[in-house]
Design a protein that fits this description.
Largest sheet: 8 strands, mixed
CATH class: Alpha Beta
CATH topology: Rossmann fold
Strand order of the largest sheet: 1-2-4-3-5-6-7-8
Order of helices and strands: EEEHEHEHEHHHHHHEHEHH
Number of helices: 12
Number of domains: 1
Structural class: alpha/beta
Strand content: 15-25%
Length: about 290
């Protein structure tokens, strides 16, 4: 098992919590909402034999203060500053779920630093329909608020520390078949154990505000014009971030490849670890 060494890295944009493992071409991993570097720990373990993997905690999560970057554009600038602080010229960036907007922004605003973009069940928030003020706005976003509100209940069902087994009712038929794999089951327990730590705090509130800003304006809160090799991975049964988000990302990038996983929901990084790793290695040139 790879050893992950989380530390706080000082940058010109502010401090950032980073866990690092492996050696080779660099993969910068951007976690979802809510999250922290631990959310993508298994990606680091899987790819450490062939890559130098940097797992960052986005602003407002873990030990990265919110002042280090609130918007996707600011967070993209923060990722470039992390590379500078670590003496790294270029990296492939992987954006998972709510980390999609800032990963995309990094590829668009810093093409000289980005050698490839991999988006996994990534949110493209401005596509969501406008709502009204406060909680009613969130309630108007299909699947989002119910997913966040139900996370605590899912944690109780999934958390390995309580000895609970995942509730099959929480998953699709295709996912239930995959739960017979011990690696998948271990990944679910690991994810749930860390998820509860990020449910409350400034990061989740900020991500929600950024989402609502995009919903209100209908405009993408990040630069346009990605011109790097791009692969989009999405499940067609994703009710939290529907497939249309992945389709929109793929349509926005010339030459991008969209790979749709039949029957999988929002937990693609857990149920399709091998495929996600293979796509990352492809972009890293490590195959």
């Amino acid at each position: 098992m790879a050893t992950l060494r989380p530390r706080v890295v000082g940058t010109v944009r502010g401090p950032v919590e980073v866990a690092e493992t492996g050696q080779g071409p660099v993969l910068l991993v951007v976690h979802g909402t809510p999250g922290g570097w631990q959310q993508a720990r298994l990606v680091g373990e899987d790819l450490a034999p062939c890559a130098r993997v940097l797992l960052v905690s986005r602003p407002g999560y873990g030990r990265t203060p919110l002042r280090s970057g609130r918007t996707p554009r600011e967070q993209a600038a923060l990722y470039a500053a992390v590379l500078d602080a670590l003496g790294i010229d270029r990296a492939v960036v992987l954006g998972i779920s709510g980390g999609g907007p800032s990963a995309y922004a990094f590829a668009a605003a810093h093409p000289e630093r980005c050698t490839g973009l991999l988006l996994c069940c990534a949110l493209r928030g401005h596509l969501l329909p406008p709502g009204v003020a406060g909680m009613r706005r969130l309630a108007a976003v299909p699947g989002l608020w119910s997913a966040l509100a139900g996370t605590a209940r899912r944690v109780d069902r999934l958390r390995g520390s309580r000895g609970a087994e995942p509730d099959p009712a929480a998953f699709t038929a295709a996912e239930r078949e995959l739960m017979g794999d011990s690696r998948v089951l271990a990944g679910l327990h690991d994810f749930a154990a860390h998820r509860v730590q990020s449910l409350h705090g400034r990061g989740l509130r900020n991500d929600t505000r950024q989402l609502l800003a995009g919903v209100r304006t209908g405009a993408a809160p990040w630069p346009v014009g990605v011109r790097v090799p791009t692969v989009v991975l999405h499940g067609d049964a994703d009710e939290v971030v529907p497939l249309q988000h992945g389709e929109a990302y793929a349509a926005a990038v010339p030459g991008a490849r969209l790979e749709v996983l039949a029957g999988l929901g929002h937990a693609v990084p857990l149920f399709a670890r091998d495929r996600l790793g293979a796509l990352a290695r492809e972009l890293l040139g490590s195959d």
